[in-house]
């Protein structure tokens, strides 16, 4: 996967997170209610296309999740990390 495509997926994941927070505020429930389970597909595609290091164990998958949620980094920076396993400790 190209870095630009991964960055676009990360931007979608960021917006889904923002949308979920807004839904929770407006409707009292969001993604956690199970009503929008297919939204997890974006995360699954990111996982499958990330460097193999992030799929070796539960700990490394947790690290992938932490990197994905590190919104102080740009989507491009997070894509580079996830595709190349440049940062293993956060």
Give a summary of the structure in a few sentences.
The chain has 90 residues and is mainly α. It has helices at residues 3-27, 40-49, 58-68, 75-84.
Structural description of this entry:
The protein has 90 residues and is mainly α. It is 62% helix and 0% strand. Helix 1 runs antiparallel to helix 2 and helix 1 packs across helix 4. 16% of the residues are buried. The model has no long low-confidence stretch (mean pLDDT 85).
Secondary structure topology:
Blueprint: H1 3-27, H2 40-49, H3 58-68, H4 75-84
Helix pairs in contact: 1-2, 1-4
State the share of residues found in helices, binned by percent.
Answer: 55-70%
Number of strands: 0
Reading the helices and strands in chain order gives: HHHH
Q: Could you tell me the radius of gyration in angstroms?
A: 13 Å
Distance between the termini: 24 Å
Output the number of helix runs. Answer: 4
Low-confidence stretches: none
Q: What sort of overall outline do the alpha carbons produce when their principal axes are compared?
A: globular
On the 0 to 100 scale, the average pLDDT is 85
């Amino acid at each position: 996967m190209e870095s630009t495509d991964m960055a676009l997926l990360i931007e979608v994941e960021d917006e889904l997170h923002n949308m979920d927070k807004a839904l929770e505020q407006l409707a009292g429930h969001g993604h956690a209610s199970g009503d929008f389970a297919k939204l997890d597909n974006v995360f699954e595609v990111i996982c499958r296309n990330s460097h193999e290091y992030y799929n070796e164990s539960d700990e490394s998958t947790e690290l992938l999740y932490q990197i994905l949620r590190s919104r102080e980094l740009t989507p491009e920076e997070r894509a580079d990390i996830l595709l190349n396993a440049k940062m293993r400790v956060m």
